[in-house]
Amino acid sequence: MEKITILLLDFCHFLWWAVSKKKKDSYDLVIIRTDAIGDFVLWSSALEEILRHNINKKILLIGNDQWTSLAAILFPQVSVMGVNYKKLNSISNRYEELVKIVSIDAQELYYPVYSRAYTTGDSLALLIQAKTKIAFDGDL
């Protein structure tokens, strides 16, 4: 029942976004990684390669707020946005986190996570308007 409620809330949020005239923050590339700090540290060398292939592009990294301050230090050329993992999993606090995501527009979106979860990653990717979205088929 909780997952159905989250899906309905996300759908309502998407409809609100569709009619909203809020100014969009535009990026060339948005990357979503909402997993734990250890996964981020292991994946950071892949981010270095992504950055090497996307020089002079405006890039946003959306991540778990537990490690986004570290990401901002390690990768100063990237804009970093933290989302609260616990709030994304809470029906009562979810809206607060999704409002940050709705104002993002991108040319490309990468969601390089194999073990995906709708509430903490897929829903974020759905709300971001991007011309191209790339993700693993994964084990969802």
Question: In summary, what is this structure?
Answer:
This protein is α/β, with parallel strands linked by helices and 140 residues long. Helix content is 46%, strand content 25%.
Strand content: 25-35%
Question: What characterizes the major β-sheet?
Answer: 5 strands, parallel
Count of distinct strands: 5
Q: Evaluate the radius of gyration.
A: 15 Å
Number of helices: 6
What fraction, in percent, of the residue positions are helical? 40-55%
Spatial gap, N to C terminus: 18 Å
Question: What structural class do the secondary elements suggest?
Answer: alpha/beta
Show unreliable segments.
none
- The averaged pLDDT comes out at 81
Characterize the overall form: globular
Strand order of the largest sheet: 3-2-1-4-5
What order do the helices and strands follow? HEHEHEHHEHE
